[in-house]
Amino acid sequence: MTSPDYCALIPVAKRPGQRFVKGQGSYLFDDTNKGYLDLVQGWAVNTLGHSPLVMQEALARQAATLVNASPGFYNGPMVELANTLVKHSVFDQVFFASSGAEANEGAIKLARRWGQKHKNGAFKIITFEGGFHGRTLACMSACGKPAFEALFEPKVPGFIKVPFNDLAAVAAAMDDATVAVMLEPIQGEAGVVEASGDFLQGLAALCQAQNALLIFDEVQTGIGRTGKLFAYEHHGIKPHIMTLAKGLGGGVPLSAMLIDKAVSCFEYGDQGGTFSGNPLMCAVGQAMVEAVTAPGFLEGVNARSQQLKEGLGLLSAKYGLGEVRGQGLLLALNTGMLDASALVEKAMALGLLINAPRANTLRFMPALNISEAEVAEALGLLDKLFQQ
Questions:
Q1: Per-residue pLDDT tens digits for 271-283
Q2: Is 217 noted as a catalytic residue in this protein?
Q3: Catalytic pick from 161, 246, 309, 364?
């Protein structure tokens, strides 16, 4: 299998030669009909795997009635999904967009608008080393990804980066111009690095004491990925703003910013987007949330998480590898001295799709409804991989 002789795509990513033509559940198939067990799922996007029936039905039903009404009007799926997200969360209002970067850009804009109106023009946002928030210029400015540091200068000012899980560093960085603290509860691109419960609870208390907003970027951790509907639920705290994408659309471009009504301060025209609240996308989002909140679904996520985590731990012990990290079905394995990128290539040859966010880290983000047999199959393929 080789890549096409000519491809008009701008080369922004190194892609393997396979061309995928079909997906079903936990499997992807290339144009030779070879199947691959997919533990990447579009980078934690495909909540129910590839082409789930509920998505097909939602798309067909909505496409037959209304695809695009304009963001200047209400539509049924937009209102239904917004009300559903509020019902299942601690938030009061929702703004829809198409990507995680757009949702995070909205959170940055709202925080700064709130600072203009309620904190004497405060605009600085504290973010974290290793953090990833998207690829718009403002979001890249907020990221703590080392590879972004020299790109596209000058970036947007006002982002102060401190070490992750270091509450004292956050406190030291705060001043009268600080309007918010923004973080991922689990840093995915950094290699699945979890914020500790004590750190998050301390952060919430610090933000309250300093009159600063707390922004949770749950683009990767939201919609059941960590074993609860939202990751903040693990820690008994209430952010002022939360962003969602990836799993919310289950494979279609959909994102959301959820907010406490106390920080709702946009005026007409401050925020918008051509596809904000698109009925076709919101219909799919509603189907995803209904599936994940159905009785017993999250219990299944946690059961498969335990199975995969224990299996990875046994492989690590067998082959002298490192720790297993993460929650739910967002897990990582430290590969020790082994080159994770090389392992990804070898795994693909075996028919297994995995991801290497760091040189010594493999990341696993399967469909949330992956079966017990499919997890066992994945662990068997990993065993073969480490034997090579």
A1: 999 999 999 999 9
A2: yes
A3: 246
